[in-house]
Amino acid sequence: MCQPTHHAAPPAAHGKAGLQNKNAQLILVYSFLLSVYSSLVSNTPLTVYISMITSTNTDVGIATGIQGIVNLLIALPVGALADVIGRELLLRAAAVMALIAAAYTAVCLLYIHGSGEFDNHTTYLSLCGASALWGLFMGLHASPLEALFGDSVATGDRSQIYVWRSSLRTLGSVVGPLVSIFCFITHNQWDLHELTVILLVGVGFAIPPAVCLFFFRDKNSLGDASEGLHSRRAASPAFPQAAAEAPPPQEPPPPHDSPLPPLQREHSSPKRHGQGEELAAAPPLDSALVGSVQEEERVASCRMCGCLFTVDHVAPLVALSDTLGFVGNGMTVKFFPVFFKDKLELLPITVNLIMLAGPIGIAAVALLMQRVSLRLGRVPTAVLCKATGASMLVAIACIRYVPQTGAAAKYAIVPLYLMRTWLINCTSGLTKSVLNDYVPKRNRGKWNALESVNLFSWSGSALLGGYLSTEISYKNTFLITSGMQFCSVACLLPLISLVAAESQAHLRRPKLEQVVISDATSSTTCTSPLLAAGGSCEARACGAR
């Protein structure tokens, strides 16, 4: 990106700048609180609760799918609206909807089920209505919140704070299993009364994140610092200023009578332009650094996979990868607690200990992988983790477990499940940071509406997963899920050489800001944020000859 020569302020410490923004700080708190609610209501407790009052996985999938369908119907128009009217008003509307949904869910649990006047089918239908209300809440808040988060963190500083947010969300998921263990500690059997208590506690925990939504402000978002890389490259404000400051063009040389063409004048001559003193005082260029800039210019037009992919495809491919991953995960994640309960015959405390270890491991591995990504790259790290996790799900499907005689298989399945959970889910912060780095601010609401589409695909595929696990067995459902996850990995492979390496950007940016490329008309500084190692197609060095 070309900018006029000026003394640039030193860059903020990598990953720290985002924490100085009030919106970003509040989003971290909000994400943790919402995850606490989800762990108490949307995850294991509600899944097992519906399974016990209906006795079929299909009904579990329907209740979950309703939330996803409602979410999908409202998310896309809300995402477009967020780019027009701003994020703040929509987040306040979502807060009101969350409070309404919490109150209705409490009525379902305390009156419709607790009074004993209604049968289990009526309770199930009322919970489907609650699921629809929570779908409205998710559709109203997900797109504006993700867009506001992208607007509040500087481009080039996203991966670490996005991983911190992902880790806080997973740590919030620990609360649900802890409360469940406490409730089941005196009566270690699956019981509707204990599950009802857990769900009511979760409904109470929905209030704090709803209150947080009232305090987000559009005015606290960043300006050009959070702009996407495409917008920085395509429309830099530097160009009008550089043109205004450029000296007027020279008069054409006088005509000559020679039949030979006139000699080309050296336009970069200091004396010819009357700029001898200024250019003479300019510091000499480091030839190695100029060579590096020229190499970046040479690879600026490179493409991957036979001229099929450029940086224009980064955001679509990341979004497609996330969607495929969500579809695959949704087919099985909701049913692992039921699988542990029915097939492995694990007791409630054991199942909740497994659910407790899952988010703790995700948070730890996510922080580790973010550090690895600074050396290896964000996309290669995501590919490695996702492919390994999908392979472990294949291994789980291949283990044959027989109750009462398969203790060894049981002890193999649980560790594989945990490692698979950690690796598959630890990269969401990395892929989300890539998406927001390559999307202009004006379109972030629309692109982050895909987050709600992903939530639909996760919830909607639970309906399919419930049917498949009943009709064709858990094993075949696991294999289908792993196939979807390998397709998700395939979408990321073309991006390995296209997506930026943040560590190199922070090392290279201060050096490039000192490189002055002088010509006949202007003096410019070449900066190329987030250059990918070994030939990023986003590099746009200017003025190097």
UniProtKB/TrEMBL annotation:
CDD domains in the record: MFS
TM segment ranges: 26-50, 62-82, 89-112, 124-149, 170-190, 196-216, 307-327, 347-369, 447-468, 480-501
Pfam families: MFS_1
Gene Ontology molecular functions: transmembrane transporter activity
Biased composition (Low complexity): 234-245
Stretches the record annotates as Disordered: 234-278
Biased composition (Pro residues): 246-262
Domain of life, per lineage: Eukaryota
Alphabetically ordered keywords of this record: Membrane, Transmembrane, Transmembrane helix
Keyword Calcium included in the entry's annotation: no
Protein name: Major facilitator superfamily (MFS) profile domain-containing protein
Organism this protein belongs to: Prymnesium parvum
